[in-house]
Structures are given as C-alpha cells and as structure tokens.
C-alpha cells in the first residue's frame, strides 16, 4: 500500500479479475497435430519391408500405388500447413519424400525430427530388405556347376 491508501502498482497486482482474458479450451491432441501426415510420410519406407516380404517389391503396380500414396500424403500435409499460413507445396515429394519433409520443416519452422525419422525408417527398410532378400538378388542368374558343360556362342 502506498501512503494514499491505494495499492501499489506492480507485477503482483496485475490481472485482478476484471481484465483477465478467458482461457481457451484446448483442442484434442489429434485435432491440433499438424505433423500427422508428415509422420506417416516419414514412416512410409517401412511399407517397403512389407512389400519385400510379400515378394511384390519388383511389381510396377505396387510401385505406382506406393508413389501415389507418397504424393497423396504430401498433398494432405501441404494443405494442412497452408491452412496455418505456411507456403508449402506437395510437388517436392515427386523427387523424394525427404525433399518435401525438409521443405516443410524449413518453411514452417517446425522440428527437424521428421526428416530424421524418414532417414531412420529408410535405413531400417534397406537393412531389412538386405536381410529378407539375402542372396536372392541374383536368383535369375544360372548357376554353373563343376560338371556342367558350358557352350560359348559367338
């Protein structure tokens, strides 16, 4: 209190109730997460493991569906970021998903963990692919045994 009977103005007297801003109700975590499509895009290389285990990884139709899903997820991610005011395009995903993920990270100022998640899932997919395929990469090559007769044609 000051000498005139009025409370002293200071940090402890701010917001006495009549000038407080009402507290906004928080949206559920899933509704306010802007990274859900980006995380799905970053984890998509793990689908390649499933395709390799089903032996459809050399299939053109499976590749077209995979890249269609990549572009679709990048489009949904870019649309959601544009709603928040960030200028992000989905077209970078045509080169590689990592290009879109780096582009969205730089434009939106969000965490750089999502591109690193893509790197980790791609590395896991490569390691798993090598383990699944093993020596099957050259399965169509004929094996020449020691007793086989080999004829060379010019």
Gap between N and C termini, in Å?
109 Å
Radius of gyration: 28 Å
Calculate the mean pLDDT score and round it: 77
* Count of DSSP-assigned helices: 6
Number-wise, the strands total: 0
Strand % is under 5%
Flag low-confidence runs.
none
Shape: elongated
Largest sheet: none
Structural class, judged by helices and strands? mainly alpha
Determine the fraction of residues in helical runs and give it as a percent range.
40-55%
Query: Helix and strand succession?
Result: HHHHHH
Task: Compose a concise summary of this entry.
With 154 residues, the chain is mainly α.
Protein model, in words:
This protein has 154 residues and is mainly alpha-helical. It has a domain at 32-132. It is built from 6 helices and no strands. It has helices at 29-32, 36-43, 45-53, 60-83, 97-108, 113-133. Helix 2 packs antiparallel against helix 4 (60-83) and helix 5 (97-108) packs antiparallel against helix 6 (113-133).
Outline the secondary-structure elements.
Layout: H1 29-32, H2 36-43, H3 45-53, H4 60-83, H5 97-108, H6 113-133
Helix pairs in contact: 2-4, 2-6, 3-6, 4-5, 5-6
